Amino acid sequence: MAKSAIIIDGAGVTAKFNDVSIADIVSISFGVHGERDEIDLSTIDATEYMVGLLGDLVGVEDVVITKKADPAAELAHTSDNKNLVIEYYVGKSTKKTLTYWAQLKNVSPSSVERAAADGVNVDMTFAITNLNADLAETGPSIA
Q1: Secondary structure letter of residue 76 according to DSSP
Q2: C-alpha to C-alpha distances, 107 to 24, 47, 86, 129, nearest whole angstrom
Q3: Which is nearest to 124 in space by CA: 72, 69, 86?
Q4: Of 31, 25, 21, which Cα lies nearest the Cα of 122?
């Protein structure tokens, strides 16, 4: 199944992980919510077509926040399972808030280029856990 990504330009976007702001956002990318894996049920008895179903569990892809590098700021973020909150605008005035339970998976050099004088970008990759602080299943929300 092809995976899609939604990319939001960093202009006007705010993000917090464990109530700690993530500054200087260049862009944010995340997968389309609600993707389910295909389960192949084909057997030797199938004579003409592959057969299968979609699984019941919904997968949520990692969220990647591309930002201007600031090593001290990146080190200040915990790798524990915490809330990741992203606020952005649809159009000029419709504010949306995405909330995930996530863990900071890694911080790595970004392929998004900047002018040499502006420094480098890094990608902060967050694994979506879908487990709240009490380890109860809690999916992403959008408001």
Answers
A1: T
A2: 15, 49, 18, 17
A3: 69
A4: 25
Task: Tell me how far apart the alpha carbons of residues 20 and 98 are, in angstroms, rounded to a whole number.
Answer: 16
User: What pLDDT, on the 0 to 100 scale, is given for residue 85?
Assistant: 96
32: which DSSP letter? P
What pLDDT sits at residue 32? 64
CB 114, CB 66: distance < 8 Å:
no
Question: What is d(CA 40, CA 53) in angstroms, rounded to the nearest whole number?
Answer: 7
pLDDT at 58: 78
Average pLDDT per consecutive 10 residues, the chain (143 residues; last block may be shorter): 63 90 89 74 78 80 89 81 92 88 90 75 92 91 88
pLDDT at 2: 44
User: Quick one: tokens of 60?
Assistant: 């949520």
Distance CA 13, CA 4 (A): 21
Collect all residues with Cβ–Cβ distance below 8 Å to 5 and sequence separation of at least 6: 29, 30, 31, 32, 61
Tell me which H or E stretch contains 37: strand 35-40
The C-alpha angle with vertex 29 and arms to 66 and 125, in degrees rounded to 5, equals 55
> Which tokens belong to 11?
């202009």
